Amino acid sequence: MSKGIVLASSSVHRRELLKNAGVDFTAEASDIDERDVEAPLKGSGVSPDEIAQILAEAKAVDVSERHPGHLVIGADQTLSLGDQVFHKPANMEEARRALLSLSGQTHHLNSAVVLVLDGAVIWRHTSIAALTMRKLDPGFIGRYLAHAGQKALTSVGGYQIEREGIQLMEAIDGDYFTIIGLPLLPLLKELRARGEIDG
């Protein structure tokens, strides 16, 4: 067993998922700049799910350097429409353009999780959810964003499925935890197998 579990994330949602699952952990955000890590990957043929994996590993390795002997959980998520990768919108106009692009399309949420011990990746997993968005009227998009407010800027794609963003969807193929950004069932299985949590 490790000295303890550290979640390398500032995400309130990921912290809440682990806490609600009964996992004893501490949390510490990574110091890496995700866009700096991602920049050299553009045009390299790396898939959106691989980008999520690389970012999750980078975060966990960074935090692991400050916590020797601790098991560090790293997680990241990308939203992809074909080969296009979306990020959190910087402003309402970016959110509007993202929703217009996703309207009537099936996009993917690629959620990666890794375990790192003393700077070495010892386990990795990626889950993918497919979400089909309704064909959205531009006027509705404007009203939706006005109602969602600044919360629309805190998630890739400009929506939060656990809030009014569910109204944008026509169909979902994938589990809730993958959509929120932490493939919880595979993670819990691995933590049990390693004796980190009771099982």
Query: What is CATH's topology name?
Result: Maf protein
Record field, number of beta strands: 7
- Mean pLDDT, all residues: 94
Shape: globular
Kindly give the count of domains. Answer: 1
Distance between the termini: 14 Å
CATH architecture: Alpha-Beta Complex
Provide a count of the helices: 7
Structural class: alpha/beta
Describe it for me?
This protein is α/β, with parallel strands linked by helices. It is built from seven helices and seven strands. It has a single domain, classed as Maf protein, CATH 3.90.950. Strands 1, 2, 3, 4, 5, 6 and 7 form a seven-stranded mixed beta sheet that branches. Helix 4 packs across helix 5. It is found in: Cytoplasm.
List keywords for this structure.
199 residues, alpha/beta, 7 helices, Maf protein, single chain, seven-stranded mixed beta sheet, ITPase-like_fam
What order do the helices and strands come in, and which of them pair?
Blueprint lengths: L4 E4 L3 H9 L5 E2 L6 H5 L9 H17 L6 E11 L2 E3 L5 H11 L3 E12 L2 E14 L4 H11 L20 E5 L2 H5 L3 H10 L6
Parallel strand pairs: 1-2, 1-3
Antiparallel strand pairs: 3-4, 3-5, 5-6, 6-7
Summary, kept brief:
The protein has 199 residues and is α/β, with parallel strands linked by helices.
